[in-house]
Amino acid sequence: QIFNQHNAEAPNLEPAFHRMAQMEPNLDHDLSWFLLPSYWAKMIVALISFLCFANSYDGDFVFDDSEAIINNKDLRAETPLGDLWYHDFWGSKLSSNTSHKSYRPLTVLTFRINYLFAGGFYPVGFHVINIILHCTISVLMVDVFSILLGGLQFSNKGRRLNLAPKSSLLAALLFAVHPVHTECVAGIVGRADLLCALFFLLSFLGYCKAFKENKEGHTFSVFWVLVSVVLGAIAMLCKEQGITILGLNAVFDALVINKINLLELIRKLLYKDKSLENAGLLRKGLLFRIALLMCGGAGILYIRWRIMGTGPPAFTEVDNPASFADSLFVRAINYNYYYSLNAWLLLCPWWLCFDWSMGCIPLIKSVSDWRIIALAALWFCLIGLICQALCSEDSHKRRILTLGLGFLIIPFLPASNLFFRVGFVVAERVIYLPSIGYCILFTYGFSLLSKQAKKKKILAVAVLGILLINVVRCALRSSQWRSEEQLFRSALSVCPLNAKVHYNVGKNLADKGNQSAAIKYYREAVRLNPKYVHAMNNLGNILKERNELHEAEELLSLAVQIQPDFAAAWMNLGIVQNSLRRFEEAEQSYWTAIKHRKKYPDCYYNLGRLYADLNRHIDALNAWRNATVLKPEHSLAWNNMIILLDNTGNLAQAEAVGREALELIPNDHSLMFSLANVLGKSQKYKESEALFLKAIKANPNAASYHGNLAVLYHRWGNLDLAKKHYEVSLKLDPMAPGTKENYSLLRRKLEQLQKKGG
C-alpha cells in the first residue's frame, strides 16, 4: 500500500527525544511511498540487492581478476603476510617503476583468505563475498540515508530516531539496484570498492554516534570521533577513495550538527564580520572535531606517502589521453566531458562497458564539437543545484542539497584528474560511492514532485517502474560479467572504437583456439590504435604459429620500435628470426628481451633452443639451467636438458638432471618418459619400466610412450609385452616413426623362435 497521509509517523518513535537541532520540515510529509518498520525496510533492501546480482555467484574470473587474483603471488601462502604492506593491488612492489601505486593491502588480504579457504582459485567463494558485501552496504544505507535526509536525533533513551523512514527506504533501494554497481559486485576486483564503501559508511555512522549524549552530559564523544578516523583509514587501505569520508564528516558536522549557513558564513568571512561566533563556526567543539579529522587525515596520507614513495604511477597515453594533451584548454574541456559522462551513467545506466579507454571516447579538440552540449548541461544543473544549496531560504533544502552534492562530488575527487593523473577515462567502479549523492538528490527531487503532483500514486508507480527496470538491468549486466566472452562482446556495441575491446575479444577467441576469428579482431585493434603494441605482439604470435613469418616479423619489429622495452615482443621476434634461420639476429633479440626483463625463464628456454640448433651445447644447457633456476617448474627446459644430454651420450648426467627434475615436478609424465629412456639405455630396465608405466598411466594415449616401452621390452627380451605395446602404439599412431620397423623386426624374431620351437 502507498501512503500519502500527512500525519504518517515513523513506526516505534519514542515521544521524548534529545534534540541535536531544531525540528525541520519532514521530507516524508508529502512523499508518496511505502512506510515500513525499520527491520522490514532493511530486509526488503537486502533481498532486492541480492536478487539483482545473485546470478553472478558462479561466474568466472574475468578481465582484471586475472592480474589481481590469479597472477598475484600475494594470495599464496608462501608469500609472507608482511609483503602485502609493501606491494600494490596487483602484487608488484610499490617501489617499482611499473607499479600503479594502488595501495589496497586489506582488499588483497581478503582475496588471500578467500584463496586459502577455497583451497585454490575457485571463483564462487570470491563472488559470494562480493554479493554479501553489497547487500550489507545497501542495508547500512537505510540508516545512512535516514540521517542524511531526516537529520540526526536521539531519544532520551539514547536510540537514534529515523525521521525519514519512507525517503530513506526509497534512497536505499535506488542505491541497491543501480546498474552502474554491477562492475563492483560481479567483477571480483570490485571488492576494493565494496570494502571501501563498507568502512566509509561505518566511519560516517561512528561519527554520528559521537553526538549521542552520554551520562556525563558531554555533547560529543572524542572516542567516537577517533573511531571514525580509524575506520576512514581502514577504508583507505581498501581503496584510495576511503579517505574522503573524513571531509564528508566535517561537512556533515558543519551543516547538520552546527547548522551553519554557508552563504552567510562566506559573507561574514569576506566582510570580516565580528559576529562570526554567532554563525556557528566557533560553536563549542566544532573546530576541535575538524582539527581531529584534519590531523587524522594528514597522518594517514603521510604514512601512505612514506610507504608508497614519492614517484607517481606510470600511465600511458592510451589509458588517459586527455591528461597527455599539451593544451590546458583541451585537458580541461575533456575532463569536464568525462564528468558529464559519469553523471549520465548515474542518470541513465543503460550503456555500460568494462573499459572506456583506447579511443572509446575521442578527444574534444575544439568548441565546435557538439559534445560541448553535455558539458553545458552538466554545469547548468550543477550551478543551479549549488545556488539552491547556498541561497535557498529553506534551511532544510539547503542542508539536503549540500549533503547530496557533497556525497556526489567529494568521493569522486580522487578520480577527477584534478590532483593527479588517473589511469582511466571513465570507470564505472569509481561511481559506487558518489552514487550515494545521486540517490539523495533523486529522492529529494521525488519528494518535491510528490508535493506538487495531484496524482501521487502515478508518480509512485513511475518510480517503482524505474526500480524494476534497474533490477532487470542489473540481472542482465551481471550475466554479462559471468564470462569474458559475454563481457567483451557486450562492449562491442557500446564502444566500437575501443581498441582494447577488440583486443580482448580477439584474445578470448585465441585462448579458445579460434585463431582465424582472433586475427580479425587483433587487426581491428591495431587499425583503431596503430601504436597498440600488445595487439601487435599477440597478432604476430598467431601469424608465427600459422607460419606467416614475414608479416609476423614486421608486426613484432614495429612493436619493439614503438616500445623498446617490450620484453615479450623482443622474445617473440627472436623466435620468428630463429624460424627464418637468421640466428645472429635472433640471439640479439633474445638478449635484448632479457636485458629488459632480468627474470625471464621463457626467454632463456628459447635462447637454449637457438643454441641447440647451432650445436652450441654448453650454451644451450646453461640457458636451460637459467630457465629452471628462475622457474623450477619449467618442464620444457628440464626435458630439453635431459634429451640433449641423452643425445650427446652423457647418460649419467642426463639421469642426474632427470632425477632432479622429477623431485621438483613429481607428476610430470613427460619428464618420467625422458628419464625412462635414459635409464633404459643405461640397462636399468626395471626402474625404466616403472617410469614408463607411470607415464602411460598419466597419459595413456601417447603413442611414443607405448612405442618406447615396447623398445625397452624388446631389448630386455620380454617379447610378448614388446609386441603388445608396439601394437598399441601403432593403433594410436599408425605413422609413428620407427615403430613400424621395430614391430616388423620383432615379428620376424617371433616367427624364427616359433620355427625353432616347432
From TrEMBL:
Q: Does the keyword Ribosomal protein apply?
A: no
SMART domains in UniProt: TPR (SM00028)
What PANTHER family does the annotation carry? PROTEIN O-MANNOSYL-TRANSFERASE TMTC4, PTHR44227
GO MF, one term, reads: dolichyl-phosphate-mannose-protein mannosyltransferase activity
Q: Where are the transmembrane segments?
A: 33-54, 131-151, 188-208, 220-237, 243-266, 286-305, 372-391, 403-424, 430-449, 458-476
- Quote the subcellular location field of this record: Endoplasmic reticulum; Membrane
Please state the pathway this protein functions in, per its UniProt record: Protein modification; protein glycosylation
- Can you give the residue ranges of the DUF1736 domain? 311-383
Q: What is its main location?
A: endoplasmic reticulum
**Which domain of life does this protein belong to?**
Eukaryota
Membrane-protein topology? Multi-pass membrane protein
Source organism of the structure: Melospiza melodia
EC number of this enzyme: 2.4.1.109
Q: Which keywords are on file for this protein?
A: Endoplasmic reticulum, Membrane, Repeat, TPR repeat, Transferase, Transmembrane, Transmembrane helix
Q: What class of enzyme is it?
A: transferase
Q: Which gene encodes it?
A: Tmtc4
Does Transmembrane helix count among this protein's keywords? yes
Q: What is this protein called?
A: dolichyl-phosphate-mannose--protein mannosyltransferase
A cellular component term, taken from the record's GO annotations? membrane
According to its UniProt record, which protein family does this protein belong to?
A: Belongs to the TMTC family.
Q: Which stretches are TPR repeats?
A: 499-532, 533-566, 601-634, 703-736
Q: Which GO terms describe its biological process?
A: endoplasmic reticulum unfolded protein response
